[in-house]
Amino acid sequence: MDAAALRAEFPVFERYAYLNAGTCGPLPRAAAAAVGGVLALAAEQGRADAYFEAMLDQRTRLREGYAGLLGAASDDVALTTCTSEGIVRVLGALQLEPGDEVLTSDEEHPGLQGPLAAARDQRGIVVRVVPFAQIAEAVEPQTKLIACSHVSWVNGRMIGDLRALADVPVLLDGAQGAGAVPTDVTALGCAFYAGSGQKWLCGPVGSGMLWISPRWSERLPAPGPTYLNLDVPRDGLAAAPRADAGRHDASAQSAETTAAALAALDVLGGAGGAQWPGVHERAAALAAQLADALAERGREVAPRDRTTLVSWQDADPPATQALLAQDGVIIRDLPGTGLLRASVGAWNDDSDIDRLLTALP
Ligand SMILES: Cc1ncc(COP(=O)(O)O)c(C=O)c1O
Predict the structure, then answer these.
(1) Of 24, 236, 240, 352, which is least surrounded by CB within 10 A?
(2) Domain of residue 196, residue span
(3) Spacing of C-alpha 69 from chain mean position
(4) pTM for the complete prediction?
């Protein structure tokens, strides 16, 4: 993998040490150009058959790209707008009854907590919270679903092996997993994997995916199939939802969004996705390098695994984040935790890490 060539695809590095992919990845030039291309063509040629055919072709390629990344079949991948949408779809479609327990962890993001709280308040499910590292051992007979992160957004720890829990479906929040770390949904042993396109896949806000295991697919009917979710829309009232995961596609995703997401995926994965192993390895190595350097300087780095997030204690995280931003170093603080978090991708290099270390008060 040519690290310098990859970095050169991202204009943001001309000015910033951008270490914030856990929020939104850097946007490659090609993605911005793809948006412009779609809009220019639409304005000049109108939006008729050719426009829609091109969009459908790009949707197919995006679905295949996401599927390849997850080690999945493209029929099992829905195109969503974000991780949270996938989570909402799973919680909404699973037949959870009042009193059914959903097990979750103490390190979850509001994108999962919000849908869980709504299911508790509106449908009477019980949400039990246990430490992230203890999820697998905490399953009880009343547990009907496990819903937790693949990679903790708080500290970059990774979920353990869940394959032994085969009878209890696992919904993984893959916002900090998809594109960041090697991800094989079968090896993970999950039933559902919801991911973001705008973070580690460097796509636009409004892109994402939901993988549905064929084993659990029948348990996940489409909540309200809209035009894009129908198998043969012209069948009118007889039209059935698509049999594949496409029945959970977002009701509408703009052609610009699809084109940009696909362009970003091509930049990262290269031809046929061959570049992904190199991208994952470089990101993990650079993140470990940053974690070690922070520890050497006496910073208390939060326990982490070989992922792309590095969090450390800071006396005043919002103030330090703002100070770093003045020096062109973009990281985030994690409200309520006393932590600052840097997101390290294959697009970063030593200069970004040095800039961060130098700018830290
Ligand atoms: C662990 C985790 N889950 C969910 C989300 C929300 O992602 P999205 O905006 O794609 O729904 C985030 C975003 O930061 C996250 O870190």
Answers:
(1) 236
(2) 38-271
(3) 12
(4) 0.97
